[in-house]
Amino acid sequence: MSITKVWIEEGCIVCNACEAECPDVFHVTADSCHIKSDARVDGQEDENRSSKSALQTPLQSSLESSIIAAAVACPVNVIQYEQVVSEVPVEAPRVDVVVQVAAPAVAPTVAPTEPESTSTAIDTPLPQTNASVATKPRITEVWIDEGCIVCNACEAECPEVFHVTADSCHIKAEVRLDGKENENRIEKSKIKELLGESLIEKIISAAAGCPVDVIKYGVLGDAPKIEKKIDAAHGHSPEPSQSFVWNIAAAPNRTVVMPKTVPLPSLKIYLADQENQKIADEAKWQKQLADYETNKAKALAEGKEAPKAPVRPAAKKDENDVVAPTPILADAPELIYLQQKLGSKVEEIFQQSGELVCQVNPDFILEALALCKEDPALKFEMLADETATHYPAADAFKFSIVYHLTSLSRQRRLRLRILVPEGYDVTSAVAVYPGANWLEREIFDMFGIRFKDHPDLTRILCPEDWEGFPLRKEYPTLGLGQREIDFREDRSGVLMRLSLEKAGNLSINLKKPEAN
What we know:
There is one protein chain. The protein is α+β, with helices and mostly antiparallel strands. The protein folds into 3 domains: about 1-130, no CATH class; about 135-255, Alpha-Beta Plaits; about 255-285 and about 325-475, NADH:ubiquinone oxidoreductase Nqo5 subunit (Beta Polymerase, domain 2), CATH 3.30.460.80. The chain has 12 helices and 16 strands. The strands form 6 sheets. A 5-stranded mixed β-sheet has the order 10-11-14-13-12.
C-alpha cells in the first residue's frame, strides 16, 4: 500500500503535531498547515486542498506510516489522504485500487510489521475487474504504548482482546501466539489469524475510542473505516464515541481505598491507646524474660556459658522530635460548668492544644446550644462555624458534627461535638443560631446528613440532581465531576475539551448540569 495524495481540510488549529510526526511532508505555518513543495509533483506549497496534487513517487511508500501517524495524531481530524492498494495479478496487468480515507476515523498508527504482513502485491487472476482482494483484511498484532489511563474503554469495546488491570491494559494470552499476557509492547507478538479477521472492526473501534491513543496495531489488507460523528459548530465529537458505561469496579485503580482507622480526637481514645501500648510492651518484655530463662537452662544443660540477661530498654527521648498535641484532662471553667449543668447528657470533656471540647449526646444538642448561648456564665453568642467529618471505619458512629462557638464579650471559644450514626436526623441549630441555616445545608450537600426542623434543607453547592456526597470518604476523586466549561477556540482549548469528553466520569453525574 502507498499514499498518493495528502491535503489539509479547513479547521487546522496549528498544533504542530503533524510536522513533529512527519516533517518531510508537513510544514506548519502561522495560520495553517502546508504540504511541502518538494514532496508534491506540482512543486507548490499550500494546503493542497483544491489542487489535490500527488506526492512524489518515492515518498508514497516510504512515508506511508509517518503520514498515517500524523493524520491519527491530528486533534481536529483535518489531515486527509488517498491510499492505493497495489495489485499484481498472476495472468493480468497490474491494477491499482484507490481508496480515499479519513485517517483519524480509521485507526491509530499503523505499526511497522514484518514483510509478509505489509505486502503491497495481492495475486488475483481477475483481469476484468477494477479491484479485488485475495484475502480478508485482518489485524496482525496489537500492543499498548505507554500512557494508559486505565479507563476501561477498550475492554468494554473488545473484551476478547483487551484486559484492563489495576495499572495498565493487557493483550489477553489466549489471543496471542506466544501465550503471554502483558502490554505486548516489547514482544509485538502476533495474534491468531482467525481472531484478527473476526475482531478487526472491534479492535479498530477500541483503538479509535482510546482517550489517550495508546492502542497500536498492525493491519494486513484494507482496514475498515470507523466513522465518527463530528460537531459542525466546534469540529469535535459531541459525545464519547463508544456506548459503554464507565464502571468503577472495572477499573481497579479508580476504586476508593477506605480508611481503616478512626483518628477521632478524644481523651478516652487516647488513654485507651496508651493503656493498650503499655500492655503490649509488658507482654513483649515478659516474653524476652521467658526466652532468656529457656536459653539459660539449655546452656547449663549443655555445659555452655549462660547468655546475658536482657535489659529493658529505656524510653528514648529526642529533644528535636516534634511532639503532637495530645488530649488532656479538662480544667477550663466552661467545660466543668457544662458538665455540672448537663450531667449525664455530656459524654466527654477534654482539652487539646488550647481547644475546649465538650461532646454531648446528639439527642440533647439543641439544649446544649441554648445553654451555651443564653447562660450568663457562658454567653457564647456566635456560631462561628458548623462542620462535619466522615469516619467510615467507626462502629458506633459514622459522622461527627462540630459546632464552633465564640463568646465575643468574654473572648473565649468552645467546641460542642456530637457523634451520629448513618441515617440519624440531627435537630437543626437554626432555632438557636439562625446562621446555622447555610452551614447545615452545606453539611447536607457534602455528607448527606439530614437536619430535622430545618427551614430549607436543600443542596447549596451542587445541583439538586447531583449524585453522591463529595466529602464522604467513598466519593471518587477522579473524573469530570464539574460543570460545563467554556473552552477557548485555540489549540489548548480544543485539546482540553477533547480530553475531558473522552475521559469519562466514573459513573457519577453522567448528565452535565446546565444553567437555567
